[in-house]
Amino acid sequence: MVCERCIRVVREELQKFGLDVRTVELGEVEVVQTPRSNDINSIKKILEQNGFELIEDKNAKTIEAVKTAIIRLVHHNHDTEPMKLKYSEYIAQKIGKDYHSISALFSSVENVTIEQYIIKQKIERVKELLKYDDRSLSQIAEIMGYSSVQHLSNQFKSVTGFTPGSFKRLNPKHQHRIPLDKVR
Predict the structure, then answer these.
(1) What predicted TM-score, i.e. pTM, was given to this entire model?
(2) Torsion-angle region of residue 13: left (phi > 0), alpha (psi -120 to 50) or beta?
(3) Pair 165, 126: CB distance under 8 Å
(4) What single DSSP character describes residue 170?
(5) Which domains does the chain have, with CATH numbers?
(6) pLDDT for 24-35, tens place per residue?
(7) Rounded to an integer, what distance in angstroms lies between the CA atom of residue 70 and that of residue 118?
(8) Which of 64, 123, 124, 177 has its CA 20 to 30 A from that of 133?
């Protein structure tokens, strides 16, 4: 779940099953009581119809928690504060496991490193800022934690095939962004 609308839909669907939903956050739901085992398949089906999935596998939960932590940091971080946290420390702290084991698991399941996933998420955020914000590229680079505008520009071009300036000048219908949960 990557947006408020997604969170609302999940909450409403679970409440339809009579579940007392305590919290719904990015990638995580807490309910007061455990659903009956015969309701689990129905819940899975309803969630899938809405574009979500119920994750029960321990490794899959860890991967989802890593993605959620990255999305939260990259996309929901306060825009006025530069990103100064070390990603490896942040992720290890959020997941409660050694970063190297998390990284190995993530790479083996997702076929992309955590670092590559972070870069792709950051580029999606930069696309959003270029498209909807009137900050300068140097302000965006600082907010996103890049060491320089050149570093941001090189990474942006490597991932998208466009320079940030040429992307910004594209016709809006050609400024393709990837939904956050589809970034790979």
Answers:
(1) 0.71
(2) alpha
(3) no
(4) S
(5) 1-54 (no CATH), 57-184 (1.10.10.60)
(6) 876 678 888 877
(7) 7
(8) 64
